[in-house]
Automatic annotation (TrEMBL):
Major site of localization recorded for this protein: membrane
Gene Ontology annotations of biological process type: protein secretion by the type II secretion system
GO CC annotation: plasma membrane; type II protein secretion system complex
UniProt modification remark: Cleaved by prepilin peptidase.
Name assigned to this protein: Type II secretion system protein I
Highest taxon in the source lineage: Bacteria
Pfam families referenced in this protein's UniProt entry, alphabetically: N_methyl, T2SSI
C-alpha cells in the first residue's frame, strides 16, 4: 500500500498545470510586446538622427557655396540631392550692426516634410 501512495504522489507532482503554462505565456507575450515597442522606438530615433545628420550636411554645403561665392546671385530656394534624397534648401540674409557683415540662415527641409529639419546660421562678408 505504501508503494501505491508513493506512485500517486509522484504522478500528481509531474509537469506544469495548465494555469502555470498560461501565466508563463502571458508573461512571455508581455515581455515580447515591450521588447518590440522598444526596438521600434530605437529604429525610429535612429532614422530621425540620420535625417538630421544628412540635413546638416546639406545645410553646411549650402553655406559653403554662399561663402565661396560672395556677392553672386543665387536662388534663395533650391533643391539638392544627398544620399538619393531630394532636400529643399532656403537661405535668408539680414544685415548686422557691422557694415559688410551679413547674417545668413539656411533651412533644410526633408522630403515630404513641411517644417525644416535643420537650420544653420552663419555670417558672410568681412572679406
Amino acid at each position: 500500500m505504501n508503494d501505491k501512495n508513493s506512485f500517486q504522489a509522484r504522478r500528481t507532482q509531474r509537469g506544469f498545470t495548465l494555469i502555470e503554462v498560461m501565466v508563463a505565456l502571458v508573461i512571455a507575450a508581455l515581455a515580447l510586446t515591450a521588447l518590440t515597442r522598444g526596438l521600434g522606438q530605437y529604429v525610429f530615433q535612429q532614422s530621425q538622427l540620420q535625417e538630421r545628420v544628412i540635413a546638416t550636411w546639406v545645410a553646411e554645403n549650402r553655406l559653403l557655396e554662399l561663402q565661396r561665392l560672395p556677392g553672386a546671385q543665387m536662388e534663395n530656394r533650391a533643391q539638392e540631392t544627398a544620399l538619393s534624397q531630394d532636400w529643399q534648401t532656403e537661405f535668408t540674409t539680414s544685415d548686422t550692426l557691422i557694415d559688410g557683415i551679413q547674417k545668413v540662415e539656411v533651412a533644410v527641409t526633408a522630403p515630404a516634410e513641411k517644417q525644416p529639419t535643420v537650420r544653420l546660421y552663419s555670417i558672410l562678408g568681412g572679406g
